[in-house]
Amino acid sequence: MNALEKRINSAAGLLELAKRAWRRSARLQAGALLVGFIVAIAVLGPYLAPYPSDGMGVVPQNAAERVGKPPSLEFPFGTDSLGRDVLSRVLMGARLALAQILLVVSLSLALGLLVGVYAAYYRGPVEVVLNYAAEVFLAIPAIVIALALRLVWGQGLHVVVASLVLSWWPWYARTSYVYARAVAEMEYVLLARLAGVPDRVVVFRHVIRNVLPLVLVQAITDLGSVLLEASAVNFLGLGLPPDAPDWGIIVQNGFKYIASMPWISMFPGLFVLVTALGFSLVGDSLREEVDPKMRRRWKLWF
Q1: Label partner for 209 (CA 20 to 30 A): which of 29, 151, 189, 269?
Q2: How far is residue 264's CA from residue 79's CA, in Å, rounded to a whole number?
Protein backbone atom coordinates (compact mmCIF):
# COMPACT_ATOMS: atom_id res chain seq x y z
CA MET A 1 0.00 0.00 0.00
CA ASN A 2 1.54 3.32 -1.08
CA ALA A 3 1.42 6.60 0.85
CA LEU A 4 -1.55 7.92 -1.13
CA GLU A 5 -3.65 4.81 -0.42
CA LYS A 6 -2.78 5.04 3.29
CA ARG A 7 -3.96 8.64 3.30
CA ILE A 8 -7.25 7.65 1.65
CA ASN A 9 -7.84 4.84 4.12
CA SER A 10 -6.98 7.01 7.13
CA ALA A 11 -9.68 9.50 6.15
CA ALA A 12 -12.34 6.90 5.42
CA GLY A 13 -14.19 7.65 8.66
CA LEU A 14 -14.33 11.42 8.94
CA LEU A 15 -16.00 11.34 12.35
CA GLU A 16 -13.39 8.96 13.76
CA LEU A 17 -10.70 11.14 12.21
CA ALA A 18 -12.08 14.18 14.02
CA LYS A 19 -12.25 12.28 17.32
CA ARG A 20 -8.62 11.20 17.06
CA ALA A 21 -7.52 14.71 16.20
CA TRP A 22 -9.54 16.19 19.07
CA ARG A 23 -7.83 13.92 21.62
CA ARG A 24 -4.39 14.57 20.21
CA SER A 25 -4.34 18.22 19.15
CA ALA A 26 -4.65 21.26 21.38
CA ARG A 27 -4.63 23.39 18.23
CA LEU A 28 -7.82 21.71 17.04
CA GLN A 29 -9.47 22.51 20.35
CA ALA A 30 -8.34 26.13 20.15
CA GLY A 31 -9.51 26.43 16.55
CA ALA A 32 -12.87 24.86 17.38
CA LEU A 33 -13.27 27.36 20.23
CA LEU A 34 -12.65 30.28 17.87
CA VAL A 35 -15.00 28.89 15.22
CA GLY A 36 -17.66 28.18 17.84
CA PHE A 37 -17.38 31.76 19.07
CA ILE A 38 -17.95 33.13 15.56
CA VAL A 39 -20.84 30.73 14.91
CA ALA A 40 -22.47 31.80 18.19
CA ILE A 41 -22.15 35.44 17.15
CA ALA A 42 -23.65 34.64 13.75
CA VAL A 43 -26.64 32.97 15.38
CA LEU A 44 -27.15 35.47 18.20
CA GLY A 45 -25.81 38.61 16.51
CA PRO A 46 -29.19 40.15 15.59
CA TYR A 47 -30.33 39.68 19.21
CA LEU A 48 -27.10 40.94 20.78
CA ALA A 49 -26.63 44.01 18.58
CA PRO A 50 -27.47 47.12 20.62
CA TYR A 51 -28.54 49.03 17.49
CA PRO A 52 -30.05 46.56 14.99
CA SER A 53 -30.86 49.20 12.36
CA ASP A 54 -27.21 50.29 12.30
CA GLY A 55 -26.19 46.75 11.46
CA MET A 56 -28.19 46.88 8.25
CA GLY A 57 -26.55 50.12 7.14
CA VAL A 58 -29.42 52.42 8.16
CA VAL A 59 -28.14 55.82 9.29
CA PRO A 60 -29.70 56.72 12.68
CA GLN A 61 -31.70 59.90 13.13
CA ASN A 62 -29.19 61.37 15.58
CA ALA A 63 -26.25 60.51 13.33
CA ALA A 64 -24.68 63.97 13.55
CA GLU A 65 -24.24 63.59 17.30
CA ARG A 66 -22.73 60.12 16.96
CA VAL A 67 -20.21 60.57 14.15
CA GLY A 68 -16.72 59.30 14.92
CA LYS A 69 -17.31 58.39 18.55
CA PRO A 70 -14.37 56.40 19.97
CA PRO A 71 -14.97 53.14 21.84
CA SER A 72 -16.87 53.72 25.09
CA LEU A 73 -19.44 52.05 27.35
CA GLU A 74 -22.23 53.33 25.11
CA PHE A 75 -20.46 52.29 21.88
CA PRO A 76 -17.94 49.51 22.74
CA PHE A 77 -16.52 49.48 19.18
CA GLY A 78 -17.12 53.18 18.52
CA THR A 79 -19.14 54.68 15.67
CA ASP A 80 -18.26 55.22 12.01
CA SER A 81 -18.20 58.32 9.81
CA LEU A 82 -22.00 58.14 9.40
CA GLY A 83 -22.76 57.72 13.09
CA ARG A 84 -23.52 53.99 12.86
CA ASP A 85 -22.57 51.69 15.73
CA VAL A 86 -19.58 49.58 14.64
CA LEU A 87 -20.35 46.79 17.14
CA SER A 88 -23.83 46.31 15.70
CA ARG A 89 -22.50 46.15 12.17
CA VAL A 90 -19.73 43.71 13.10
CA LEU A 91 -22.19 41.40 14.90
CA MET A 92 -24.57 41.49 11.95
CA GLY A 93 -21.66 40.80 9.62
CA ALA A 94 -20.80 37.45 11.23
CA ARG A 95 -23.87 35.77 9.73
CA LEU A 96 -23.15 37.29 6.32
CA ALA A 97 -19.50 36.20 6.46
CA LEU A 98 -20.36 32.58 7.26
CA ALA A 99 -23.07 32.51 4.60
CA GLN A 100 -20.61 33.67 1.94
CA ILE A 101 -17.82 31.23 2.74
CA LEU A 102 -20.13 28.23 3.22
CA LEU A 103 -21.86 28.90 -0.10
CA VAL A 104 -18.57 29.34 -1.93
CA VAL A 105 -16.83 26.30 -0.46
CA SER A 106 -19.81 23.94 -0.77
CA LEU A 107 -20.48 24.87 -4.41
CA SER A 108 -16.77 24.81 -5.31
CA LEU A 109 -16.33 21.45 -3.62
CA ALA A 110 -19.34 19.91 -5.38
CA LEU A 111 -18.28 21.13 -8.81
CA GLY A 112 -14.59 20.35 -8.36
CA LEU A 113 -15.29 16.91 -6.90
CA LEU A 114 -17.44 15.87 -9.86
CA VAL A 115 -14.99 17.23 -12.42
CA GLY A 116 -11.95 15.67 -10.75
CA VAL A 117 -13.55 12.28 -10.20
CA TYR A 118 -14.94 11.96 -13.71
CA ALA A 119 -11.62 13.07 -15.23
CA ALA A 120 -9.77 10.43 -13.22
CA TYR A 121 -12.32 7.68 -13.85
CA TYR A 122 -12.88 8.01 -17.59
CA ARG A 123 -9.39 9.17 -18.63
CA GLY A 124 -8.75 9.85 -22.33
CA PRO A 125 -10.42 12.88 -23.97
CA VAL A 126 -12.67 13.51 -20.94
CA GLU A 127 -9.60 13.73 -18.71
CA VAL A 128 -7.83 16.13 -21.09
CA VAL A 129 -10.81 18.47 -21.55
CA LEU A 130 -11.71 18.69 -17.85
CA ASN A 131 -8.12 19.19 -16.72
CA TYR A 132 -7.61 21.87 -19.38
CA ALA A 133 -10.76 23.69 -18.21
CA ALA A 134 -9.46 23.63 -14.63
CA GLU A 135 -6.09 25.03 -15.73
CA VAL A 136 -7.79 27.91 -17.55
CA PHE A 137 -9.74 28.99 -14.46
CA LEU A 138 -6.66 28.57 -12.25
CA ALA A 139 -4.90 31.19 -14.35
CA ILE A 140 -7.58 33.86 -13.73
CA PRO A 141 -7.47 35.68 -10.34
CA ALA A 142 -10.70 35.91 -8.37
CA ILE A 143 -10.55 39.72 -8.42
CA VAL A 144 -10.52 39.74 -12.23
CA ILE A 145 -13.51 37.39 -12.35
CA ALA A 146 -15.34 39.54 -9.79
CA LEU A 147 -14.64 42.67 -11.84
CA ALA A 148 -16.06 41.05 -14.99
CA LEU A 149 -19.16 39.81 -13.18
CA ARG A 150 -19.60 43.21 -11.49
CA LEU A 151 -19.82 44.84 -14.92
CA VAL A 152 -22.42 42.31 -16.08
CA TRP A 153 -24.51 41.65 -12.96
CA GLY A 154 -23.98 44.71 -10.79
CA GLN A 155 -23.45 44.34 -7.05
CA GLY A 156 -24.78 41.61 -4.82
CA LEU A 157 -24.09 38.37 -3.01
CA HIS A 158 -24.38 36.45 -6.28
CA VAL A 159 -21.31 38.28 -7.64
CA VAL A 160 -19.18 37.36 -4.62
CA VAL A 161 -20.26 33.72 -4.64
CA ALA A 162 -19.99 33.21 -8.41
CA SER A 163 -16.57 34.86 -8.72
CA LEU A 164 -15.07 32.86 -5.86
CA VAL A 165 -16.65 29.57 -6.97
CA LEU A 166 -15.16 30.03 -10.43
CA SER A 167 -11.81 30.72 -8.79
CA TRP A 168 -11.85 27.89 -6.24
CA TRP A 169 -13.44 24.88 -7.97
CA PRO A 170 -10.27 24.00 -9.95
CA TRP A 171 -8.34 23.45 -6.71
CA TYR A 172 -10.89 20.87 -5.56
CA ALA A 173 -10.89 19.35 -9.03
CA ARG A 174 -7.11 18.90 -8.80
CA THR A 175 -7.26 17.35 -5.33
CA SER A 176 -10.17 15.09 -6.25
CA TYR A 177 -8.42 14.03 -9.45
CA VAL A 178 -5.28 12.89 -7.63
CA TYR A 179 -7.17 10.87 -5.03
CA ALA A 180 -9.75 9.53 -7.48
CA ARG A 181 -7.02 8.11 -9.72
CA ALA A 182 -5.63 6.19 -6.77
CA VAL A 183 -9.09 4.92 -5.76
CA ALA A 184 -9.99 3.97 -9.34
CA GLU A 185 -6.96 1.65 -9.45
CA MET A 186 -7.79 -0.13 -6.19
CA GLU A 187 -8.71 -3.79 -6.46
CA TYR A 188 -12.33 -3.58 -5.33
CA VAL A 189 -13.08 -0.82 -7.86
CA LEU A 190 -11.49 -2.82 -10.70
CA LEU A 191 -13.46 -5.91 -9.66
CA ALA A 192 -16.71 -3.92 -9.60
CA ARG A 193 -16.06 -2.68 -13.15
CA LEU A 194 -15.19 -6.18 -14.37
CA ALA A 195 -18.40 -7.47 -12.79
CA GLY A 196 -20.40 -5.09 -14.96
CA VAL A 197 -21.48 -2.67 -12.24
CA PRO A 198 -22.71 0.55 -13.93
CA ASP A 199 -20.16 3.37 -13.99
CA ARG A 200 -22.55 5.71 -12.17
CA VAL A 201 -22.80 3.27 -9.26
CA VAL A 202 -19.04 2.71 -9.12
CA VAL A 203 -18.32 6.44 -9.21
CA PHE A 204 -20.75 7.45 -6.49
CA ARG A 205 -20.62 4.38 -4.25
CA HIS A 206 -16.91 3.63 -4.35
CA VAL A 207 -14.85 6.50 -5.77
CA ILE A 208 -16.61 9.62 -4.46
CA ARG A 209 -17.35 7.92 -1.16
CA ASN A 210 -13.62 7.46 -0.53
CA VAL A 211 -12.44 10.75 -1.99
CA LEU A 212 -15.00 13.01 -0.29
CA PRO A 213 -13.59 12.87 3.28
CA LEU A 214 -10.16 13.99 2.07
CA VAL A 215 -11.62 16.85 0.05
CA LEU A 216 -13.79 17.88 3.02
CA VAL A 217 -10.70 18.16 5.20
CA GLN A 218 -9.14 20.42 2.59
CA ALA A 219 -12.36 22.44 2.36
CA ILE A 220 -12.37 23.13 6.11
CA THR A 221 -8.82 24.47 5.83
CA ASP A 222 -9.82 26.66 2.88
CA LEU A 223 -12.71 28.37 4.69
CA GLY A 224 -10.35 30.94 6.19
CA SER A 225 -8.71 31.72 2.85
CA VAL A 226 -12.11 32.05 1.17
CA LEU A 227 -13.16 34.53 3.87
CA LEU A 228 -10.07 36.63 3.16
CA GLU A 229 -10.82 36.63 -0.57
CA ALA A 230 -14.50 37.45 -0.05
CA SER A 231 -13.53 40.32 2.23
CA ALA A 232 -11.08 41.56 -0.40
CA VAL A 233 -13.74 41.45 -3.15
CA ASN A 234 -16.16 43.41 -0.98
CA PHE A 235 -13.43 45.78 0.19
CA LEU A 236 -12.79 46.74 -3.45
CA GLY A 237 -16.50 47.40 -4.02
CA LEU A 238 -16.93 44.51 -6.46
CA GLY A 239 -19.41 42.44 -4.45
CA LEU A 240 -21.97 43.47 -1.89
CA PRO A 241 -23.49 46.99 -1.87
CA PRO A 242 -21.66 49.60 0.24
CA ASP A 243 -24.29 49.67 3.01
CA ALA A 244 -24.13 45.89 3.66
CA PRO A 245 -22.77 44.87 7.09
CA ASP A 246 -19.90 42.91 5.58
CA TRP A 247 -16.58 42.93 7.43
CA GLY A 248 -14.63 43.78 4.29
CA ILE A 249 -16.97 46.69 3.53
CA ILE A 250 -16.74 47.99 7.11
CA VAL A 251 -12.93 47.91 6.85
CA GLN A 252 -13.17 49.82 3.57
CA ASN A 253 -15.54 52.38 5.09
CA GLY A 254 -12.99 53.17 7.78
CA PHE A 255 -9.90 52.97 5.59
CA LYS A 256 -9.93 56.66 4.67
CA TYR A 257 -10.21 57.53 8.37
CA ILE A 258 -7.54 55.10 9.52
CA ALA A 259 -5.47 57.87 11.12
CA SER A 260 -8.30 59.67 12.95
CA MET A 261 -10.78 56.81 13.57
CA PRO A 262 -8.79 53.54 13.45
CA TRP A 263 -11.43 51.57 15.36
CA ILE A 264 -13.76 51.51 12.34
CA SER A 265 -11.41 49.22 10.43
CA MET A 266 -9.64 47.58 13.36
CA PHE A 267 -12.54 45.63 14.90
CA PRO A 268 -13.95 44.04 11.72
CA GLY A 269 -10.39 43.29 10.65
CA LEU A 270 -9.81 41.45 13.93
CA PHE A 271 -12.96 39.39 13.38
CA VAL A 272 -11.76 38.40 9.89
CA LEU A 273 -8.40 37.39 11.37
CA VAL A 274 -9.92 35.37 14.23
CA THR A 275 -12.33 33.54 11.92
CA ALA A 276 -9.66 32.70 9.35
CA LEU A 277 -7.28 31.54 12.10
CA GLY A 278 -9.93 29.31 13.67
CA PHE A 279 -10.75 27.49 10.44
CA SER A 280 -7.05 27.13 9.59
CA LEU A 281 -6.26 25.56 12.96
CA VAL A 282 -9.17 23.11 12.65
CA GLY A 283 -8.35 22.18 9.06
CA ASP A 284 -4.62 21.74 9.61
CA SER A 285 -5.23 19.60 12.69
CA LEU A 286 -7.47 17.28 10.69
CA ARG A 287 -4.93 17.11 7.88
CA GLU A 288 -2.31 15.98 10.39
CA GLU A 289 -4.34 12.85 11.02
CA VAL A 290 -4.48 12.15 7.30
CA ASP A 291 -0.85 12.97 6.53
CA PRO A 292 1.69 12.33 9.34
CA LYS A 293 4.23 14.52 7.52
CA MET A 294 2.07 17.52 8.43
CA ARG A 295 2.44 16.63 12.11
CA ARG A 296 6.20 16.57 11.86
CA ARG A 297 6.17 19.94 10.08
CA TRP A 298 4.12 21.56 12.87
CA LYS A 299 6.47 20.18 15.52
CA LEU A 300 9.16 22.41 14.07
CA TRP A 301 7.05 25.40 15.13
CA PHE A 302 5.19 24.26 18.27
Answers
A1: 29
A2: 7
Nearest-angstrom CA–CA distance, 206 and 154? 42
Residue 45 to residue 64: CA distance in whole angstroms: 26
108, pLDDT greater than 90: yes
Say what the alpha-carbon torsion angle 275, 222, 6, 114 is, to the nearest 10 degrees: 140
Cα-to-chain-centroid distance, residue 295: 23
User: Among residues 208, 278, 254, which one has the least CA distance to residue 12?
Assistant: 208
Query: Across the chain, what does the average pLDDT equal?
Result: 88
| Per-residue pLDDT tens digits for 30-73 | 999 999 999 999 999 989 999 988 888 888 888 888 999 999 99
Q: What is the pLDDT of residues 251-286, one digit of tens each?
A: 999 999 999 999 999 999 999 999 999 999 998 888
151 belongs to a structural domain: yes
Cα 170 to chain centroid distance, Å, stands at: 15
Q: Considering the domain boundaries, does residue 64 fall inside one?
A: no
Contact 238, 252 (CB under 8 A): no
Evaluate whether residue 239 is within a structural domain: yes
CATH number of the domain where residue 99 is located: 1.10.3720.10
Q: How many CB atoms lie within 10 A of CB 293?
A: 11
The torsion angles phi and psi of 266, rounded to 5 degrees, stand at -65, -45
Taking a C-beta distance cutoff of 8 angstroms, is the pair 177, 131 a contact? yes
Q: Give start and end residues of each alpha helix (H) in the chain.
A: 3-10, 14-24, 26-48, 52-55, 63-66, 86-122, 124-138, 142-153, 157-184, 187-194, 199-202, 208-235, 247-255, 263-290, 292-299
Domain hosting residue 283, numbered range:
15-52+75-299
